[in-house]
Amino acid sequence: MTKRPIVDRAEVGIDFPDKSYLGSFTRHSAFEAAADHEGVTIRLIRPGTESRQADIHLHYHLFADVLDELAGAIAAGHPVDEAHRGPLLAAARHLAAALES
Q1: Structural domain count, the chain
Q2: 54-88: per-residue pLDDT in tens?
Q3: I need a surface site. Which of 11, 16, 52, 80 has the fewest CB within 10 A?
Q4: What is the dihedral sign for C-alpha 81, 22, 34, 30?
Protein backbone atom coordinates (compact mmCIF):
# COMPACT_ATOMS: atom_id res chain seq x y z
CA MET A 1 0.00 0.00 0.00
CA THR A 2 1.12 3.53 -0.73
CA LYS A 3 0.56 6.36 1.74
CA ARG A 4 -1.32 9.35 0.36
CA PRO A 5 -2.11 12.58 2.22
CA ILE A 6 -5.64 13.16 3.45
CA VAL A 7 -6.85 16.34 1.76
CA ASP A 8 -10.11 16.57 3.68
CA ARG A 9 -11.06 14.81 6.91
CA ALA A 10 -12.00 11.38 8.25
CA GLU A 11 -13.64 10.56 11.56
CA VAL A 12 -13.78 7.16 13.21
CA GLY A 13 -16.12 6.16 16.01
CA ILE A 14 -16.32 2.78 17.72
CA ASP A 15 -18.75 2.12 20.56
CA PHE A 16 -18.18 -0.67 23.05
CA PRO A 17 -20.55 -1.43 25.95
CA ASP A 18 -18.22 0.21 28.48
CA LYS A 19 -16.33 2.78 26.39
CA SER A 20 -16.22 4.68 23.12
CA TYR A 21 -13.39 5.56 20.80
CA LEU A 22 -13.54 8.67 18.64
CA GLY A 23 -10.71 9.78 16.42
CA SER A 24 -10.14 12.21 13.61
CA PHE A 25 -7.67 12.16 10.77
CA THR A 26 -7.10 15.52 9.12
CA ARG A 27 -4.72 17.10 6.62
CA HIS A 28 -1.67 16.15 8.68
CA SER A 29 -2.65 12.49 8.32
CA ALA A 30 -2.38 9.95 5.52
CA PHE A 31 -4.32 6.99 4.16
CA GLU A 32 -3.62 3.78 2.34
CA ALA A 33 -6.11 1.79 0.29
CA ALA A 34 -5.61 -1.65 -1.19
CA ALA A 35 -7.52 -4.52 -2.74
CA ASP A 36 -6.74 -8.20 -2.28
CA HIS A 37 -8.42 -11.49 -3.17
CA GLU A 38 -11.05 -11.05 -0.41
CA GLY A 39 -11.89 -7.34 -0.39
CA VAL A 40 -10.65 -3.82 0.20
CA THR A 41 -8.57 -2.39 3.04
CA ILE A 42 -8.57 1.25 4.10
CA ARG A 43 -5.95 2.40 6.62
CA LEU A 44 -5.98 5.87 8.19
CA ILE A 45 -2.67 6.98 9.73
CA ARG A 46 -2.10 9.91 12.06
CA PRO A 47 1.61 10.45 12.82
CA GLY A 48 3.18 12.46 15.59
CA THR A 49 2.90 12.56 19.36
CA GLU A 50 -0.79 11.54 19.27
CA SER A 51 -0.25 8.90 16.61
CA ARG A 52 -3.03 6.48 15.79
CA GLN A 53 -4.02 4.10 13.05
CA ALA A 54 -7.43 2.78 12.03
CA ASP A 55 -7.84 -0.16 9.65
CA ILE A 56 -11.01 -1.46 8.05
CA HIS A 57 -11.26 -4.46 5.75
CA LEU A 58 -14.49 -4.96 3.81
CA HIS A 59 -15.18 -8.08 1.80
CA TYR A 60 -16.28 -7.32 -1.76
CA HIS A 61 -19.99 -8.09 -1.27
CA LEU A 62 -20.17 -5.72 1.70
CA PHE A 63 -18.17 -3.07 -0.14
CA ALA A 64 -20.59 -3.36 -3.09
CA ASP A 65 -23.54 -3.03 -0.69
CA VAL A 66 -21.98 0.10 0.85
CA LEU A 67 -21.44 1.69 -2.58
CA ASP A 68 -25.02 0.83 -3.58
CA GLU A 69 -26.40 2.29 -0.34
CA LEU A 70 -24.42 5.50 -0.88
CA ALA A 71 -25.76 5.80 -4.42
CA GLY A 72 -29.30 5.34 -3.13
CA ALA A 73 -28.85 7.97 -0.43
CA ILE A 74 -27.51 10.51 -2.91
CA ALA A 75 -30.29 9.77 -5.40
CA ALA A 76 -32.92 10.04 -2.64
CA GLY A 77 -32.18 13.67 -1.95
CA HIS A 78 -28.87 13.89 -0.13
CA PRO A 79 -26.89 15.46 -2.98
CA VAL A 80 -23.17 16.02 -2.90
CA ASP A 81 -22.09 19.66 -3.12
CA GLU A 82 -20.33 20.95 -6.20
CA ALA A 83 -16.86 21.01 -4.57
CA HIS A 84 -17.00 17.28 -3.79
CA ARG A 85 -19.05 15.98 -6.72
CA GLY A 86 -16.26 16.18 -9.32
CA PRO A 87 -13.64 14.23 -7.35
CA LEU A 88 -16.21 11.59 -6.35
CA LEU A 89 -17.41 11.18 -9.91
CA ALA A 90 -13.85 10.90 -11.23
CA ALA A 91 -12.98 8.27 -8.61
CA ALA A 92 -16.18 6.31 -9.33
CA ARG A 93 -15.37 6.32 -13.07
CA HIS A 94 -11.80 5.20 -12.34
CA LEU A 95 -13.13 2.32 -10.20
CA ALA A 96 -15.66 1.35 -12.91
CA ALA A 97 -12.94 1.36 -15.59
CA ALA A 98 -10.66 -0.80 -13.43
CA LEU A 99 -13.48 -3.28 -12.80
CA GLU A 100 -14.37 -3.47 -16.50
CA SER A 101 -10.80 -4.19 -17.64
Answers
A1: 1
A2: 999 999 999 999 999 999 999 999 889 999 999 99
A3: 16
A4: positive
Identity of the residue numbered 73: A
SS3 content of the chain, % helix, strand, coil (to 5): 35, 35, 30
Q: Which domain holds residue 96?
A: 4-100
pTM value? 0.87
Residue 42: closest CA among 25, 59, 57: 57
Tell me the sheet residues that pair with 61.
none
Question: In b/e form, how buried is each residue of 22-35, taking b as 16+ CB within 10 angstroms?
Answer: ebebeeebbbeeee
